[in-house]
Specification:
By secondary structure, the protein is mainly alpha-helical. It is 37% helix and 8% strand.
Amino acid sequence: MNKEVFEDGDPFEDPAWSKTPEAKRSSRLIGCPLPWFAWVFALVKSKDQLALALYLYRRCCIRNSDTITVPNDELDELLGISRWAKYRQLTALERAGILRIKGAPADGEWPRCSSAIGQNHPPGNEHPGAQ
């Protein structure tokens, strides 16, 4: 190896290679856009419905889809929402216009939900699966 390669010094010591400062986090971070949260908050009637709506929003973002399944085990483990409570809450969220349940689940299948888009969706807010 030629010794002249590092005559000007180590290129990784250049300030351009230094670690960038961490982005300052907002104290208003809630895991979803504030307009969406305000829209849902006005429509739900319980903390379980709000927690389920936020969970579904997050699941849409992770799956990058507006149609998702709703597994019983995750809801029970993460939120303490039982299978039957889930069905009641999903029905309530559908009545509120927050989501649509796509068909009745067959035995052993999870219900498939899609977010409400259009008239009932908050204005100026893209759907999480449309990113």
